[in-house]
Amino acid sequence: MREFKRTDRVADQLQQELAVLIQREIKDPRLGMVTVSAVTVSRDLGYADIHITLLGENDATRIDENLKVLRHARGFLRSQIANRVKLRHVPELRFHYDESIVRGQRLSSLIDEAVADDRRRHDDDEDEVR
């Protein structure tokens, strides 16, 4: 059995190329600090779902604006990928916002708050015993 599927290798290559292309080649001033967090490619290599995050921006309007810029530039990005990656057919690019990072940060802060609250209660209980 193969260790890596072809779709996984193509997804990894697309993620690397898109990260560079988005940062260096797209000159739209509306585009923020975009990070390509994951790429999944369909089994037939027809579509690639690109999941992005925005550094320091959680506003829904900014997210929509960045997605609009990337969707507008997908033809350019696809042609650049065709020049850089050896594929017979370059997948159609579909951009999505990845909320997992924001959700993870929110959960982490809730856990930190709960631990601090527990610590305060524990310290208060010890003070009452003394």
UniProtKB/TrEMBL annotation:
Pfam families: RBFA. It is found in: Cytoplasm. NCBIfam families: rbfA. Coiled coil: none annotated. InterPro entries: KH_dom-like_a/b (IPR015946), RbfA (IPR000238), RbfA_dom_sf (IPR023799), Ribosome-bd_factorA_CS (IPR020053). One of several proteins that assist in the late maturation steps of the functional core of the 30S ribosomal subunit. Associates with free 30S ribosomal subunits (but not with 30S subunits that are part of 70S ribosomes or polysomes). Required for efficient processing of 16S rRNA. May interact with the 5'-terminal helix region of 16S rRNA. Belongs to the RbfA family. Its main location: cytoplasm. This is Ribosome-binding factor A. Monomer. Binds 30S ribosomal subunits, but not 50S ribosomal subunits or 70S ribosomes. It comes from the Bacteria. The lineage of its organism: Bacteria, Pseudomonadati, Pseudomonadota, Gammaproteobacteria, Oceanospirillales. Keywords: Cytoplasm, Ribosome biogenesis. Signal peptide: none annotated.
